[in-house]
Amino acid sequence: MTARSTKSAPKRRRKDNAAERRIVDSARRHFFAHGFRGVTMDDLAGELGMSKKTLYACFPSKTDLLRAVVMDKFRAVEVDLERIAAGFSKDGLASLHRLLACLQQHTEEIQPPFVRDIRREAPEIFELVQKRRRQVIQRYFGKLFDECRRAGVVRKDISTRLIIEVLLGAAEAIMNPAKMAELNLTLQAGFSTVTAVVLEGVLTERARAR
C-alpha cells in the first residue's frame, strides 16, 4: 500500500462514519415518531439525498438500521444517566427525581407506533430493548435506592431488588401500546403515573412529606 492510500484510509472511515451518523439520526426521528413499518429505506434515502446503494452499504437491511437506532438511543440515555450518577448528592431524593426526569425526557421521543411496530415486526429488537432497559434500571436505580435507604429516604422493609422488579414490571406495561390505549394514557403519562405510585409506596414518611 502506498503512502497516499494509507493517508486516504482515515478520510474514508471518517466519511463513512459521517454517513452512518446522518442515516441513524434521520431514521431515529422517523422511526420513533411514525413507527418502523411505515418508514421505508426509499424514504430515508430521498430525505438524505443519497442513493439506496450508499444506504445499504452502511446498513445491509432495515432491521440492521433499526438495531443501530435503538443502540444509539440507549447510548444517549446512559450518557445522561452517567452524568447524573456522577453527581449523586447527599440529597438522595433530589438525585432520584433527576434520574426519573431524565428517563421521562427520553421517553417523550418515542411514540406508540414505534413500540407497536417493533413488537410485531422485529421481536428480536424488542427483546433487545427489554434487556437493555433492565440493565439500565438495575445499574442506576439499584445503586441510588441503596444509598437512599441508608439516608432514610427509602423504606428499609422493602428490598432494592423488589423495588427494581416493580419498576421493571411497570416499564414493560408502559411498553404495551394496546394497554396504554385501553387506559387512555400516553407513554409519557403512563411513565409519570407509574413512577409516582412506586415512589409514594417506597419512600419513608419523612421523604414523602418533602
Structure notes:
By secondary structure, this protein is an all-alpha fold. The chain has a single domain (6-209), classed as Tetracycline Repressor, domain 2, CATH 1.10.357.10. 80% of the residues lie in helices and 0% in strands. The protein contains 11 helices and no strands. It has helices at residues 3-34, 41-48, 52-58, 62-86, 92-107, 112-121, 123-150, 160-174, 177-182, 187-202, 205-209. The longest helix is centred in the N-terminal third of the chain and has 32 residues, at 3-34. It is elongated. The model has no long low-confidence stretch (mean pLDDT 84).
Nutshell version of this structure?
With 210 residues, the protein is mainly α. It is 80% helix and 0% strand.
Keywords:
210 residues; mainly alpha; Tetracycline Repressor, domain 2
What's the topology here?
Elements: H1 3-34, H2 41-48, H3 52-58, H4 62-86, H5 92-107, H6 112-121, H7 123-150, H8 160-174, H9 177-182, H10 187-202, H11 205-209
Helix pairs in contact: 1-2, 1-4, 1-6, 4-5, 4-7, 5-7, 6-7, 7-8, 8-10
Largest sheet: none
CATH topology: Tetracycline Repressor, domain 2
Q: What's the shape?
A: elongated
The total count of strands amounts to: 0
Number of domains: 1
CATH superfamily: Tetracycline Repressor, domain 2
| Sequence stretches where pLDDT stays below 50 over 5 or more residues | none
Please give the CATH architecture: Orthogonal Bundle
